[in-house]
């Protein structure tokens, strides 16, 4: 007999009744809480921290937008010419719903040209602002913008002020990258810090397609 065909464990009538009562109380509390949550707004969402998954989680939201036929856009800071699975899929199948702009020239240790890196970050931010200002676009992902802020290529006060003052009311903006500055965390509606527990790179495993890119 396989695990799939094993009979369910026996539960006494008393235990079943206690379980049903407990879950009924939880459902009542949840239903009451949900009736109080009726507002909608465009969110400022920050994914930061040393752990892996910041961009992956953000692209998960981009694909949700696509699935709901909601126009969206991606602006990639820092990341350069290397093709990624997300970009290939979006450009091949969903370009009508999602604009994709890779504005970086690679990580700073690859370019080794600070003036060029600053110029690329400014151009990416200008593109990001133009996309955010477009009320037809429901979500804009600013991928790895926190890295540009950390290196001083962009002013976090300027970015925070723009998001507070010029972002359309129903537009979501997602900002990724480790070391998000306090100015962004202060105005964020949703901020998540990815913690690093283990990483295969420490064991000599290189970045692999389908996992990292």
From TrEMBL:
SUPFAM superfamilies: P-loop containing nucleoside triphosphate hydrolases (SSF52540)
EC number, UniProt record: 2.5.1.17
Catalytic activity as recorded in UniProt: 2 cob(II)alamin + reduced [electron-transfer flavoprotein] + 2 ATP = 2 adenosylcob(III)alamin + 2 triphosphate + oxidized [electron-transfer flavoprotein] + 3 H(+); 2 cob(II)yrinate a,c diamide + reduced [electron-transfer flavoprotein] + 2 ATP = 2 adenosylcob(III)yrinate a,c-diamide + 2 triphosphate + oxidized [electron-transfer flavoprotein] + 3 H(+)
Keyword terms, alphabetized: ATP-binding, Cobalamin biosynthesis, Cytoplasm, Nucleotide-binding, Plasmid, Porphyrin biosynthesis, Transferase
Any single Gene Ontology cellular-component annotation: cytoplasm
GO terms classed as biological process: cobalamin biosynthetic process; porphyrin-containing compound biosynthetic process
A GO MF label: ATP binding
Domain of life per record: Bacteria
Pfam families: CobA_CobO_BtuR
UniProt-listed Gene3D superfamilies: P-loop containing nucleotide triphosphate hydrolases (3.40.50.300)
Protein location: Cytoplasm
Pathway: Cofactor biosynthesis; adenosylcobalamin biosynthesis; adenosylcobalamin from cob(II)yrinate a,c-diamide: step 2/7
Coiled-coil blocks: none
Role noted for this protein: Required for both de novo synthesis of the corrin ring for the assimilation of exogenous corrinoids. Participates in the adenosylation of a variety of incomplete and complete corrinoids.
Homology family: Belongs to the Cob(I)alamin adenosyltransferase family.
Name the UniProt record assigns to this protein: Corrinoid adenosyltransferase
Phylogenetic placement of the source organism: Bacteria, Pseudomonadati, Pseudomonadota, Alphaproteobacteria, Rhodobacterales
Primary gene name: cobO
């Amino acid at each position: 007999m396989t695990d799939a065909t094993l009979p369910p464990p026996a539960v006494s009538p008393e235990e079943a009744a206690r379980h049903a009562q407990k879950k009924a109380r939880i459902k009542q509390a949840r239903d009451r809480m949900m009736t109080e949550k009726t507002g909608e707004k465009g969110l400022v969402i920050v994914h930061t921290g040393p752990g892996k998954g910041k961009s992956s989680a953000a692209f998960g939201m981009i694909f949700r937008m696509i699935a709901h036929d909601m126009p969206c856009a991606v602006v990639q800071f820092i990341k350069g010419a290397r093709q990624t699975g997300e970009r290939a899929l979006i450009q091949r199948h969903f370009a009508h719903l999602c604009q994709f702009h890779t504005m970086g020239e690679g990580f700073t240790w690859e370019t080794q040209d600070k003036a060029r890196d600053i110029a690329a970050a400014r151009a990416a931010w200008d593109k990001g602002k133009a996309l955010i200002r477009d009320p037809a676009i429901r979500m804009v992902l600013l991928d790895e913008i926190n890295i540009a802020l950390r290196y001083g290529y962009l002013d976090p006060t300027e970015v925070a002020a723009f998001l507070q003052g010029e972002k359309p009311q129903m537009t979501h903006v997602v900002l990724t990258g480790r070391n998000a500055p306090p100015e962004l965390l202060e105005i964020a509606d949703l901020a998540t810090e990815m913690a690093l527990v283990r990483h295969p790179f420490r064991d000599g495993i290189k970045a692999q397609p389908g996992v990292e890119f």
